[in-house]
Structures are given as structure tokens and as C-alpha cells.
Specification:
Blueprint: E1 28-30, H1 32-37, E2 43-48, H2 58-71, E3 81-85, H3 89-101, E4 104-110, H4 115-123, E5 127-131, H5 136-150, E6 154-155, H6 164-180, E7 187-191, H7 196-205, E8 213-219, E9 254-258, H8 260-274, H9 280-293, E10 302-307
Length: about 325
Amino acid sequence: MPEGNTSPASCSGRMHESILSTVGNTPLVRLPRLETTHGLQAHLALKLEFFNPLGSVKDRIGLAMIEAAEREGLIEPGRSILVEPTSGNTGIALGFVAAAKGYRLIVTMPDGASIERRKMLRLLGVEVELTPAREGMSGAISRAEAIIRSTPHAWMPRQFDNIANPAVHETQTAEEIWRDTGGKVDAVVAGIGTGGTLTGIARALKPRLPNLQIVGVEPAESAVLSGDDPGPHDIQGIGAGFRPSILELDRIDILKRVTERESFAAARLCARSEGLPIGISSGAVLHAMMELAADPCMKGKIIVGIAASFAERYLSTDLFAGL
């Protein structure tokens, strides 16, 4: 069994030098009531990535991409301007790192992103440029590219292409799952946005666990990776509408399509049954986990899902409609 996680947050019982050293080491939590009430064959556990300091799995890559660029001499505080297209959480992750290190950051994002995300970005001092929601992430990327071309000393992290993205999940997230399950995990389920989370986890764990199932989740309304055309959807953070370059699709064993309605329903169920208010894409992940866990072939096995963000980031969305 490998040594424990070596992420910056691995030390405890001390005063942290900055917010940056609190990234990582998020808890893995069982869902016993859902298992019982739904008669599931497998055991479910969610890795609660909203325990990262700014509340999402993207905190890991926000720090990793900026620090990798600093090591390579591509950027430096006080001179470089960071520009990134994002549906929200990556922008927030880059925003807190940029603020802590002294960078100016501009993000472009579809105007369908939740108001909570926009306000958090602005609170962090990030400059936000909105693009039409109907253009999806492609529109945000085009606008960011235009800003890069016209802005001296600008640099784009390019979360969909940056190798530091899957690398941090390979060296940290995967090792935390291995450690916290004692090396006994049978399936890992995550939504596919950039694809970095699943790619990194699969790289690290599949060589040790040949029978491990890696399950990717995408919106049924825009199931591009399954061969459909891109389309608008409300599962923020996944389903970018194209295949990211860092996504190693051959490492994914199963692609599951989940509808917006199924995502909302599972997220609400998790809050009411387990006391875990998860976000919309996490609801999609949970729905896929429960489908997988209902299979008699999965009896007694352990399914780990990545809960990318917290419900409170979606107060203005349909997740809270009628409440």
C-alpha cells in the first residue's frame, strides 16, 4: 500500500501559512440510508470535494495549474494577467489562488452560470465577462482567446488542455481514495467537464486495480462523448460540448447519460436522506452511482463518487425551485 497523500494540506495541528495549503484531503463519506431505502447491492461513498477551501474539486487544479506555470517561468505575480474561460468553479478556484498570490484574473463564462458563482468571482476581485449561454463553453473560450490576443503579458491556464489538471488528480485525489478505502474500491464515478479528474484517477488506480470500473457521467441533453450533438443543459460544470484534449477516453469503462431532471432529483434526495446538500453535477454522479449499485453483479462492492461542489452554490437555480 502506498504512502499517504502528499498534498499541501497533509499536515495538521498547525497554523497554515496561507489558504493555499488547505487544498486537498477531502473526506470520503458513506451513504448508508440510501443503500438501505433503495435496496442497493453495492456500498456508496461520496468524496466531498466541497471541503476544499473555496468549495469545489476545481480548487485542486486552480492551484496546480498556476504553480506549474510559475515553476516553468511562464507567469509571475504583479506582471502576468491570467485569463480563463469557465462555467464558474474553475474561475473561483483560480480566483482565490490569484488573490493569494497577487495576480490579476479575467474570466469569461456563459451567462447561464449561477449568480452565486458570478458574485463569488467578483468578491475575489476577478473581472468577469459573460458570453451567451446558447454558445456554451465554446463561446466563453472564443472570448477568452480574443482577450489573450489583445492583452500584453496575458496567460491562459487552459483547463481543458493543461496537463497539470489530470496530474494533480493522479498524485493527490487518487491517492486519497486509495488510502481512505484501504485499496478496496471497485468503481469510481465522476462527471466529465475537462475530464481531468477521471483521467488522473484512472492513471493512478487502474494499474493497481485491474477490475476497477471508471464511470464517466455526461448530460443526456449534450452527450457529445457518447456521439450526440452538443446542446444546452443546466448541469453546470460538466458537458462542455466538445471532447477536451486532456480527457483520456480509453481509460473510461462506462459512459452514463444523466438528464437534468435526474440530476436535480438525486441531489435533493441526497440532502433529505443523508443530510448532504450536493450540487447539480454531483446529483448526476449520484444518480449514475445508484443505477450501478442496483446491479446484482455489484453486490458488496464499493462505489466512490466525486461530489464536485456544494448545493449552496446553486441557490438561484432550479435545484432550489419551489423551496
